[in-house]
Amino acid sequence: MNLTAVLLGREEQGEVAVGSGGDPNSNAELSTLLAQAKKAGLPKEIIERSIAKGKGVSMSGLPLETVTLEAMLPPSISAIIECQTDNKNRTLGDLRLLVKNAGGTITPTSHLFEKRGRITFNTEGENEVEEEQVMESVLEAGGLDMDVEEDQRSMTVYTEPSQTASVAQNLAGLLGVKLRNYEIVWVARPESRVEVHNLSDENHPRLEDIIAQIEEDSSVQAVYHNAA
Fold this sequence. Notes:
The protein is of the alpha+beta class. Helix content is 35%, strand content 26%. A hairpin with a 3-residue loop joins strand 1 and strand 2. The radius of gyration is 19 Å and the shape is globular.
């Protein structure tokens, strides 16, 4: 995920641009994010587009609409593509053509996924995370599952979408760790997952290339798939 996604990832929570009208002079958090983006060399156009999206409008001032496209990508990988656009027909048309040219098909796939709240905590610098003890706190707070990165720098908790914000705040207090972000995502059902190592040497890079092409569309917010 690039820095643009970090900027955009706060929109749903209303923590950055929406709360103060997108004015960095009256929004310290937005000001900090913009400074980080500029330091990282993010182009001015992308920064301005991110702020506009935070306010729910496009660069032209038109209201943004959330649209979802379901597809099968070669070789038989289920995907859900989420977008924000001020021109639904154009965006869907472009993505349908891209998927078709890549050898995929537009077809319902959401039944192979389930919506989950995904909460990420920064554990770098904290005491080593004892997964069994932490899992007890996760379940107590309303979480369903968790993953701890091998380097112990971050921890991800999954929960019911409606409980995402409350579980995030409760766990931050219970565990004494820093909340990085939280969002609603699509997670592939266990029985529908396709193991990447089962893909051929030809199909694996092909899948990565198709996903990269889809993500290049500026309207695309996220691409969820069942390749594990």
